[in-house]
Design goal:
Distance between the termini: 61 Å
Number of strands: 4
Largest sheet: 4 strands, antiparallel
Helix content: 40-55%
Number of helices: 3
Structural class: alpha+beta
Length: 102
């Protein structure tokens, strides 16, 4: 029965953390991001801008494929900023990806 005080301490710490997060969210100081899965499941219409895929090249560099309406935009990110790598039609990119998977 030596673990009961430790268990109660862990429960108290997590309870305090939960109460603090609830209070910060109520005051507007904490924003919890919503996942795109939740918006699909709820039936809410998705926006015109969607992040399709991200590839991490290093801790500070990545490539992001973004769908903007009927356009596909490949953006490179680094600690220095953002760079437009490629822009093309979404339908053309989707057709190419379908050919590769077949």
């Amino acid at each position: 029965m030596d673990f009961i005080p430790q268990l109660l301490a862990v429960i108290a710490v997590f309870s305090l953390l939960g109460i603090t997060m609830w209070w910060l969210k109520k005051k507007g100081l904490l924003q919890v991001p919503s996942s795109s899965y939740a918006s699909i499941k709820s039936g809410r219409p998705r926006g015109i801008l969607q992040r399709v895929e991200t590839v991490r090249l290093s801790p500070t560099h990545s490539l992001n494929l973004v769908r903007m309406g009927d356009r596909a935009v490949l953006i490179g990110t680094s600690s220095a900023g953002f760079y437009l790598v490629e822009s093309s039609s979404w339908k053309a990119l989707k057709a190419q990806s379908d050919e590769v998977t077949e």
